[in-house]
Design goal:
115 residues; mainly alpha; rod-shaped
Length: 115
Amino acid sequence: MFDLTQLGILALTGTGIWLVGRPESWRRIGYILGLSAQPVWLYMSVKSELWGVAILTLFCTYGWAQGVWFHWFRVDRVLPETPTQPPQPPAPPATPAIETQTHEEIAVRTAVSSA
């Protein structure tokens, strides 16, 4: 028999996870799909009496809801990503400049300090 819960879990959760992992701006749609899959997960876990999965579903629902909140309602709080630019290596530490003096400068400084 064809089971719609498995199809719902596969289509919604699988696509949601795939979209969230994408670097494009439409990755935020994945949070909507992931959150919409949670009732299917909860139905499946309660129907099968898998209470650990039911509790895990509640935690996942909270995580997906956070993604919807931050990527749809509080977009200004999300840090922008630059997926096309590789991370830059840290700059080498600056070496202190070494003063070089000519013999005449040393002689003048020595003459002034001894006078």
